[in-house]
Amino acid sequence: MVNYFLRRILLMIPTFLGSTILVFTILQMAPGGPIEQMMLELQMGGSVVGEGGGGASSSAIGGVSLPPKALKELERFYGFDKPIYQRYLSWLGVWPREIKHRDFSILKGINSVEKRVGKVDGAIWEVDVSISNNNDLIVYEKSGEKSENWFSKIENLNEDGSLDAVVFQQEYSGILTGNLGKSYTYLKPVTEVMKPRFKISLFFGLTGIFLSYLICIPLGIKKALNHGSAFDFGSSVLIFMAYSIPGWALGGVLLVLFGGGSFFDVFPLGGFRSPSEIWDTLSPIQKVFDQIHHMILPIIAWSIGSFATLTVLMKNSLLENLSQDYVRTAFAKGLKENRVIWYHAMRNSLIPIASGIGHLLGVVIAGSYFIERMFNIDGFGRMAYEAILSRDYPVTLGFLVIVVLIRLLGNIISDLVLATVDPRIRFK
Length: 428
Fold this sequence. Notes:
By secondary structure, the chain is α+β, with helices and mostly antiparallel strands. The protein has helices spanning 2-29, 34-45, 68-78, 84-92, 190-225, 230-243, 247-258, 276-279, 284-322, 325-332, 337-349, 351-355, 357-365, 369-374, 380-389, 393-421, and strands spanning 59-61, 64-66, 97-107, 113-120, 123-131, 137-140, 150-157, 162-171. It folds into two domains: 98-171, no CATH class; 190-421, Orthogonal Bundle (MetI-like fold), CATH 1.10.3720.
């Protein structure tokens, strides 16, 4: 089994790299990035005139101009001043990224020392920068020794003989080190942005999967054992009618019929739970009922798509196994009907159900933007969709990493469940 998992993990690596490289490249090359978005906002709010006249050129988009220095600072902030392969490797955490930038100017050809003091995250950092006779920049610590932690580079040579340069530190920090970056929109680490939203989608997804299997497997068995009956026909009609309705559309119908202010007025209009000012005043038992009250309609909309698939798959699988030779042989030996069905046929009928549980897990946990938007739930899918629209690349890529890992993990879960229900499968 250990060798199996090692092989599985090795096979995951190219899949993960291929998926992330493709999406990362598309995001980086697609028009309308964060810099363009910012300049578009400036255009809507009024023109920004470039500073530092004297013939200094500026970059303009849609009539909005920015000084070259400001544009370069934006590119450095978003990492667009590096080649795309460096950006990807830095995002992975295998290429050092620049941190704690500090711009300064220094006279060329003068072996002088200029002290530069900065403040980052509330901590004072202080370094000295000198320029050698060979026009090389050297960074010194406060103790006067040459720094091994700080680096510098020349950005521009001015007409007056001075150099525009930057001093910075480097670190290996990326997804392989657990750092998914910082959101452009929320200005917080991506993990902090995703964590509460992922919990919501995980809660709804796992609950929907559990209830789907809890209902669909017995229903499929009942339909198989009563194949061709009025119950089988009537339930099939209802199931496929429900299957033909998208989950988000069904959610809208349910809100119209049963939401607050409707004719029945049974359930709230949306939200994960009651507002905090109400939720904090509830007792533990009241919180449980309040949570259930808010989740009934979203769960129905969440799981309706897989409901028909699981039910029909269970029915057809059981019917197929009941027609096999080993079932007829068991009956010929005089075994009771219940033992033949529930012990022999049932175990083999669960194999198709078990093989798809990992795929289903990845789909539902990723969330659904439309359902979350319909019920005003701030979940994982809604977060990803809004991040794409706002060009929040760190959140979008963080979502990609989580979804790819869930799908790959789901494949392993499917194999484990399949091996549990099928005695012919062994890990070697």
